């Protein structure tokens, strides 16, 4: 596989992402726009991107914050993430820049692009989907599920997968319940899986391995997550009877 840092612009902000390309271009199955947690792009994401490339997907690790805006601590990260959560139009615009960069690549079929995000990134990919972006599917992994405008869910074109930890103190049960109702009302082809033993961050191997205030890594739930993600990516887009 090939990995390289790429730069692209949004509102005079230089974004620095990482582009992963399969070695055999003829084997490309699709593309994935991957979005980081509130701490920004880090090495915790690289194994996930590499796994997707091994499955045949072009991957863009999309930078939401911009060059030089890597947070130095969790407080700074929270401030950066909040600036987007409180301005959803800005969040959607910046996500569309990453999607355009990916879809403009000659190796990518723009009709076969997925978006996948973790935590803050889950919020970002869901907002991109709600904006009506041409996505084949959207995956939120312990993502923030709330939106100030649930009616936008009616714009979602592709399928949605949300993976959640029942012990998550960041995305609490009410937010999950509201998301279920949002997806139902919008008639979105959505599946939601709740891991009763997981909290928040179960795919981030830089976090504690033992339960710590509900935020911890789990190799077990990490493995289950990627089984679910692979099945979601590889199934047919139009499934007869899913509305039954």
Keywords:
244 residues, alpha/beta, Rossmann fold, 6 helices, disordered C terminus
The CATH class, by name, is Alpha Beta
Radius of gyration: 17 Å
Work out the strand percent.
15-25%
CATH architecture, by name, is 3-Layer(aba) Sandwich
Got a strand count? Answer: 8
**Can you identify the CATH superfamily?**
Alpha/Beta hydrolase fold, catalytic domain
Instruction: Classify the fold: give the CATH topology.
Output: Rossmann fold
Specify the helix fraction band.
Answer: 25-40%
Return the average pLDDT rounded to an integer. 94
- Global structural class: alpha/beta
Q: Biggest sheet, strands in spatial order? A: 1-2-4-3-5-6-7-8
**Total count of domains:** 1
Low-confidence stretches: 237-242
Main beta sheet? 8 strands, mixed
Overall 3D geometry?
A: globular
- List SSEs in N-to-C order: EEEHEHHEHEEHEH
